[in-house]
Structure formats: C-alpha cells, structure tokens
Design brief:
This protein has about 280 residues and is of the alpha/beta class. It contains eight helices and 13 strands. The chain has one domain: NAD(P)-binding Rossmann-like Domain (Rossmann fold, 3-Layer(aba) Sandwich).
Length: about 280
C-alpha cells in the first residue's frame, strides 16, 4: 500500500474526534481539530476555533484538505440542540468546503435512525423510520450529506463507550443498572476512530457503514458481566428500566468485517475489561 500523508479536518473534535486525530497524527497525517474552544486539544493538532453553525466562522478553514470528518455532538438532549448540531452545522460546513476538492466527507451518524424494536437484525439496507427526535435529526443530516456535491460516507454508530464513560459501570456498582432482556448494541470509541482511519488510509468509500461490535447482547448479560468483574451483587432484576432510545434490535457489522477492518474490541467483554483495568 502506497503511504500518503493526508490533510484531515475533524469538525466537532470531541470524544471520538480527538481519538481519531491522535491516531491519524501517529500515522503521519496532518490534522486540524475544529471546536468552539480547541485549547484543550493535543498540541500535535492544528487548532481551529469555530462554531459550526456560524458560516462566518468557517471562512478561515485551511486549504488543500483531503478529508473532512464531521463528528459533532449535541450539547443537550433536545430537538433544537440535535438540529443545530447535526443538521444546521453539517449544512454550514458543507457549504464552506464546497468546491475545495475534498475527497470525502465522513459523518458519524447513529443507529438511532433504526426504529426496529422486536429483536430484528438490522444492517445498512434496513428500513430507517425513526420516531424519536434523535433519530429523526440524524437521519435528516444523512440526507443533507447525500444531497451535497462531496463524496461521502455515513457511519451509523451503535452505543458509544470507552475510556471516561463509566455511567454503566457506576450504575452496576450502585445496584441501579438494568437487567432487561432488551438487545443492546455498542461500539468502542477506539474502533470508531480506527475504522475512519482505516477508510482514509485505504481510500475506501462505502456510502453507509454500520459500526457495532461482533456481539449484540441482552442488557442483563452486560450488567451481569460487569457485576462479576467488580465483585458486586447483580442488581435487582425487578426494578424498572429507565427509558432507552436504543430499541431492541441486533445490529450487523458484516459489511465492516467484509471491508477488512479488525475490531480492537470485538465484544463488550473486551472493551469493558480494558476500561476496568485502567480504573484507579
């Protein structure tokens, strides 16, 4: 494989974007991290302070970009915040890079675009008919991307977990975690970053790619595994589960495996075990 150094803009450079940027820099690529306050980004990044929803903030984007990765997140769980982050922000950025010769734009979408809730298996070709605003706005953003002139890839990410995201671990310790039989799906942060870097370095461009690990699992199995690892009792299975937007479905990563990417964390056991080892 011919080695090339690429110029990559990561827009909304937060939890996933920072991990991606560090991986790309380690591979010899040039990274621009864009966020409202980029001061905390690694010193190896070129830092861009901008509000993605403000077109004038994007006038000073660097030239000669090869790839753009849009991985912004909503500031709060409201329809307005989701529309601003995923729809308006993406529209604004696409307008700013129009005609600049960007080879591909990647957008980190979500499996929230699938509304299946009967344990069905879903893949890239499955029906998307969300009912919650989170899925509606991410699906709307996917449409914005497809209608742009830039070649693009939509990455539909399952539930994202990884270093620093200890909500479920904390709930297991407190005895409040769900023991539901609902099928859940997840993807480790580093495998999202790894997939995007893999696609960039090999110049691969699937139109849609579903990102999840090899093992969809009932929530009770994940909770029980963590309880055993932590040496605490399994939570009361009769307590009500908090409202969940993940539905009840089995996400397939067959296409991800077919393109040749090898997961760093093939199951929740691998990912959570690594997280637990790193905890103080």
């Amino acid at each position: 494989m011919r080695e090339m150094r690429h110029r990559v803009l990561i827009a909304g450079c937060g939890y996933v974007g920072t991990a991606l940027g560090e991986r790309l820099v380690a591979g010899g690529h040039h990274v621009w991290g864009l966020r409202r306050d980029p001061s905390e980004l690694p010193a190896t990044f070129n830092k861009v302070a901008a509000d993605l929803a403000q077109r004038s903030d994007l006038d000073a984007l660097p030239g000669g970009l090869d790839y753009v990765v849009y991985c912004a997140s909503a500031g709060d769980a409201s329809d307005a915040a989701y529309r601003r982050a995923y729809v308006q922000g993406l529209e604004t950025l696409l307008d700013a890079i129009q005609g600049r010769g960007v080879r591909r734009t990647f957008f980190t979408s979500s499996t929230a675009v699938y509304a299946q809730s009967g344990g069905e298996c879903v893949d890239e070709a499955s029906e998307t008919r969300p009912v919650h605003f989170s899925g509606l706005r991410t699906l709307e953003a996917e449409g914005v991307l497809r209608s742009s002139a830039s070649p693009s890839t939509v990455l539909r990410c399952a539930g994202i977990y990884g270093p620093g995201r200890t909500r479920l671990i904390d709930a297991v310790r407190q005895g409040t975690a769900s023991m539901s039989s609902r099928i859940t799906n997840r993807i480790h942060r580093d495998d999202i970053a790894g997939t995007i870097a893999f696609l960039i370095e090999r110049d691969l461009g699937p139109e849609v790619l579903l990102l999840c690990d090899d093992e969809p699992a009932p929530q009770r199995d994940v909770t029980s595994f963590l309880a055993a690892q932590l040496g605490v009792p399994v939570p009361d299975p009769t307590q009500a589960e908090a409202a969940a937007r993940g539905g009840d479905k089995r996400c397939s990563n067959a296409r991800l495996r077919a393109i040749g990417y090898r997961l760093l964390y093939p199951s929740y056991r691998d990912g959570y075990a690594a997280m637990l080892r790193a905890l103080p």
